[in-house]
Amino acid sequence: MLPLLDVQHLTVSFGSVPVVRDISFSLFRGRTLCLVGESGSGKSMTAFSIMRLLPSPGRVSSGALLFEGEDLLKLREKDMRHRRGRDISMIFQEPMTSLNPVLRIGKQLAEPLEIHEGLHGRAAEERAAELMDLVGIPDPVRRLNDYPHQFSGGMRQRVMIAMALACSPKLLLADEPTTALDITIQGQILRLLGRLARERDMGVLLITHDLGVVAEAADDVAVMYAGQLMEQAPVSEFFAEPLHPYSRGLMACAPLVGNHNCERLPSIPGMVPLPSELPEGCSFRPRCSHASQQCLREPPLRAVGEHHFVRCWKAFA
Question: What is this structure's pTM?
């Protein structure tokens, strides 16, 4: 079966410095793939590359981004604009700055409907109200006339989700879509995205650092670190037996429900290296308690099962 999105050997650079390094993954219709990792791992740059919205001077220096078999990198900007919002949508990470402060919410929600769906006037307003109701905004008809400053951060995030879903995209890129939401609404939104993915046969690329979100929403998991994929697996295999030391470290840092011991959670020492200051060999080596001389050589990403891949010498020792 042809993947909805097939990322092949993607490298993204700022000047001569790569921030995403030779990553490959596939996303199929009706499934949710979670990109996991700390800040600075390259997750958002991957999503911006797919949308062709990299901030200057970022550029895709090599690779291919196949959407329904067509390389997005080879499209003219005019054709790519036609794809954005209609076939491929994105929920951006920062709801406080992603909405236009001088336009009413209804106008901003109606814009993609006017451009891509040909809806105008009352029809666009009714559809915008339906979208607001879909993401749990109370009294949606009245609130169409409000401005962004009249919404809380969580409500603005819901508006961003409604805008992304407006044209029933085939591919949804969600960059930390539930960060500004309380835990109850977070669960509702994740279940909504999962249901829409199944009902509309939509592929979802969900970016997060929260393993609780991964456990609830993902079908597949890809762990990123310092611009590389470190581990990739179906979600059940990943939680049953994470193979990369970084993956295990992320799991150890997650608080457990029902743990009342009040013990300090373990942490991964050090920080994600700057793209211009990567260590020799494995990029995780300075922070890894299992590092050896062999780790001075960069390990390849290799299969340990039909759908499980890991970039670690120790996993194959």
Answer: 0.90
Q: Which domain holds residue 263?
A: 5-87+169-316
Q: How far apart are CA 20 and CA 45, in angstroms?
A: 7
Could you tell me the pLDDT band of residue 276, with boundaries at 50, 70 and 90?
very high
Concatenate the DSSP letters of all residues of 205-221 into one string: EEEES-HHHHHHH-SEE
How would residue 257 be classed by pLDDT, with cut points 50, 70 and 90?
low
What angle do the packed helices 121-134 and 153-165 form, to 10 degrees?
A: 120
Bond preceding residue 57 cis, omega within 30 of 0: yes
pLDDT at 306: 87
Do residues 207 and 178 lie in contact, with contact meaning Cβ atoms separated by under 8 Å?
no
Mean pLDDT value across the chain:
90
Total structural domains within the chain: 2
Q: Is 151 helix (H, G, I), strand (E, B) or coil?
A: coil
Position 224 scores a pLDDT of 97
Q: What's the order of all strands across the beta sheet hosting 70-71?
A: 17-27, 5-14, 58-67, 70-71
71 & 209 share domain: yes
Strand 70-71 vs strand 58-67: parallel, antiparallel, or unpaired? antiparallel
Domain shared by 113 and 78, yes or no: no
- Among 168, 199, 226, residue at a domain's last position: 168
- Looking up residue 179, the CATH number of its domain turns out to be 3.40.50.300
Domain boundary among 131, 149, 168: 168
Residue 154's pLDDT band (cuts 50, 70, 90):
confident
